[in-house]
Design goal:
Elements: E1 6-10, H1 42-49, E2 52-54, E3 66-68, E4 73-78, E5 84-90, E6 101-106, E7 111-119, E8 124-131, E9 134-141, E10 148-157, E11 163-167, E12 178-183, E13 186-192, H2 195-203, H3 209-220, E14 224-226, H4 230-245, H5 259-263, H6 310-321, H7 324-343, E15 347-348, E16 354-355, E17 359-361, E18 365-367, H8 371-391, H9 398-407, E19 413-414, E20 417-418, H10 452-462, H11 470-482, H12 486-500, H13 520-531, E21 534-537, E22 540-543, E23 554-561, E24 565-572, E25 575-583, E26 589-592, E27 599-602, E28 612-613, E29 618-621, E30 628-633, E31 654-655
Parallel strand pairs: 2-31, 22-26
Antiparallel strand pairs: 1-12, 2-7, 3-4, 4-5, 5-6, 6-11, 7-8, 8-9, 9-10, 10-13, 12-13, 14-23, 15-16, 17-18, 19-20, 21-22, 23-24, 24-25, 25-30, 26-29, 27-30, 28-29
Helix pairs in contact: 4-13, 6-7, 7-8, 8-9, 11-12, 11-13
Length: 661
């Protein structure tokens, strides 16, 4: 006979900004055991290897595990006393230290032993908590696309008295409604922003855990990476998890956006690529990225979208997808407006060049010919002229834009490379390297991009680290990769990961100044990992461009590059074995493949493809939409699929209290 079911409903005002879950069903199938056999699937194997383990609940919100689907984001940590477990829901802002509401599990006893396990592959948090009164086995998840939190409990002994209670978590007027149901040994609690959605979710038949897992498994099958350094590899996979669990939908596109989403073929999560029918907010003036030319910081925040850094993110999304709707309806008109803003302030001088009066070089000084402002303007001019060509439109200002591009003054330089601005060398530690923006992340196509001047500029900046913080090392990794310093780039990444701390999914690094999103900095770190393995600038796609000697073996699959190219590649014993590129848009392909010695250029069926040499190790290959090319060492054949490379050192899992075997 079926055990009687107990249902408790506690309802309150929906948390602001936490969108209601749609009607649907939630399954009750138990999570797969944590000690399941090691899978043979390389995707599952690498993601399972990145699991996160704690032997106590996090107290600091920055160390807490996170569950979510973008609309509802929940972190789990210890409450105000040891017997309280808080499930805190994040609202629409990125101020994660101030949750919008939540629920708390009050244990009957005091914990004596705990084991928490965030299973990234299935996007589930599992825990076993032993207390002075008994034991609680817990499974929590936010089923993808439903906007509700589901927690299942199995209690033993006196812990049958464990009870849920509502907490506003600092916002008494916005509690999070929940509903609990018990039948047999398992208790199920569902919480969400909308009381009706909570009722519907708990009342629905079982079966949707499988749908949730299928979505996540598909999510991980784009953008594969495996390297010998398991710390770096695991960090990468946690960021793929974070991109879907914690990145808020509809967030403004600030800075350079989240390039990892495009590079790993997760454009559906990118607020730019997903907004072809409308224009989300692309400018955030929370920081002073520039000042009115001639006035500088005294004029307050500049209203030009280039200086808000929104347009480079739009351009990156366009080039990864080659979606003309983004170019025609959004990017091109915005570039035209941005260039027009600066054009009014340019001053011709006796040297025949056009110069900028004083603007603000972020976090440093007001200077004329600021390298930061010149980089943004030069980038915008290039993008505007190129978009005009691509769209085939007649623009009255085209000759003017070309004239500005030709006459715009070069970056002011000195013995230590590019200066902050005219007459202003880098004289103190600068955590943002804004004067090197042209090198990274804009990757400006200039002859000096890999010149001694760029190296000197990077070396000078990297030599003064007094004011650096966690995210500075992410910037440094990208800059080091851009000048070909692969081992140094890896060193910066390792420094960032050490500063980040095992068990932390999101933060800018300890000591990070306020204003940085706790999500955006680690996602930028994930992109910095990819910068060592795949890069594109100057119209050339580069494979393994800055891969350190410490990674003699490396495999990537399904990475997305500008031109809407999808790239697979493998290297072993420090040499590139093969590269496969598939074109989605039929763009011209110039590929620096890195294969040493005799090589073959083949189609997907192994037949020879026509190609032309383009530089020392590059080939130019005409590709139509949907066509692929393979460059392989003569006598070899590419692998049929990705593989997990052998780890260098003992494989360990991340955890709050240190690594676990």
């Amino acid at each position: 006979m079926t055990a009687p079911r107990r249902r408790t409903v506690l309802l309150g005002t929906a948390a602001v900004g936490l969108g209601a879950a749609g009607a649907g069903e939630l399954g009750g199938a138990p999570a797969r055991a944590a000690d399941a056999p090691r899978p043979s699937d390389p995707y599952e194997e690498s993601v399972q290897d990145a699991r996160m383990v704690w032997d106590r609940p996090a107290e600091d919100w920055q160390d807490a595990p996170c569950l979510g689907d973008g609309s509802l984001r929940v972190r789990v940590r210890r409450g105000e006393s040891p017997n309280l477990l808080a499930f805190e829901a994040m609202g629409t802002s990125d101020a994660w230290e101030s949750p919008a509401g939540g629920v708390v599990l009050r244990l009957a006893g005091t914990p004596t032993a705990q084991r928490w396990h965030l299973d990234l592959w299935n996007a589930e948090l599992r825990a076993t908590v032993t207390t002075t009164r008994g034991r609680v086995d817990l499974t929590a998840l936010v089923p993808h696309g439903r906007g509700v939190l589901v927690v299942r409990l199995v209690t033993q002994g006196g812990e049958s008295g464990a009870a849920w209670q509502r907490t506003p978590a600092g916002r008494a007027d916005h509690p999070l409604p929940y509903l609990e149901e018990s039948g047999g040994p398992e208790r199920v609690m569902v919480a969400g922003a909308d009381a009706g959605a909570v009722r519907r979710a708990l009342a629905a038949p079982q079966g949707h855990d499988a749908e949730h897992r299928r979505w996540w498994h598909s999510h991980y099958r784009r953008g594969f990476l495996s390297v010998p350094d398991r710390t770096v590899q695991r960090f990468y996979w946690t960021q793929i998890y974070l991109s879907a669990a914690a990145l808020r939908r509809g967030a403004p596109v600030t800075g350079f956006g989240h390039p990892l989403l495009g590079s790993t073929d997760h454009l559906a999560l990118d607020p730019v690529a997903g907004a072809s029918g409308h224009q989300p907010r692309t400018a955030s003036h929370g920081h002073l990225y520039g000042g009115l030319p001639g006035v500088g910081s005294k004029g307050g925040r500049a209203q030009d979208p280039i200086t808000a850094w929104g347009l480079p993110a739009v351009d990156a999304a366009y080039r990864k997808s080659m979606d003309e709707r983004i170019l025609r309806g959004w990017l091109h008109p915005a570039l035209r407006k941005a260039v027009g803003f600066y054009a009014h302030f340019l001053v011709p001088e006796p040297d025949g060049r056009l110069h900028l009066p004083a603007t603000h070089s972020p976090h440093y000084a007001d200077v004329p010919d600021a390298s930061h402002a010149l980089a943004l303007l030069r980038w915008a001019l290039s993008a505007l002229i190129d978009s005009t060509r691509r769209l085939g439109v007649q623009e009255a200002g085209l000759d003017r834009w070309r004239d500005i591009a030709d006459r715009l003054t070069p970056y002011p330089t000195g013995p230590d490379g590019v200066l902050i601005g005219r007459g202003t060398p880098l004289a103190r530690s600068h955590p943002y390297a804004s004067h090197l923006l042209w090198l990274h992340p804009l990757r400006e196509s200039l002859p000096q991009a890999r010149s001694e001047s760029a190296r000197r500029g990077y070396a000078r900046w990297a030599s003064m680290r007094d004011s650096w913080h966690g995210s500075t090392h992410v910037t440094a990794a990208g800059l080091a990769a851009a000048v070909g310093e692969a081992s140094e780039a890896l060193s910066h990444l390792r420094h960032f990961l050490t500063d980040l701390g095992g068990g932390a999914l999101y933060r800018g690094g300890r000591g990070e100044p306020g204003g940085e999103s706790p999500v955006s900095v680690p996602l930028a770190g994930g992109q910095a990992v990819l910068d060592l393995l795949l890069d594109s600038w100057g119209g050339t796609l580069r494979v393994f461009p800055a891969t350190p000697e410490e990674w003699p073996d490396a495999v990537v699959a399904g990475l997305r590059a500008p031109g809407a190219f999808l790239v697979d590649a493998a290297r072993s014993d420090g040499r590139t074995d093969w590269v496969r590129v598939r074109s989605e848009a039929g763009e011209p392909l110039v590929l620096d493949h890195g294969v040493e010695g005799p090589f073959e250029v083949l189609d997907e069926n192994g037949g020879r493809r026509p190609w032309r040499p383009s530089g020392q190790r590059a080939v130019e290959v005409p590709l139509g939409r949907g066509e692929s090319v393979v460059v392989v060492r003569r006598g070899q054949r590419p692998g049929a699929g990705p593989r997990v490379v052998e780890a260098a050192g003992t494989a360990r899992a991340w955890g709050l209290s240190g690594p676990h075997e």
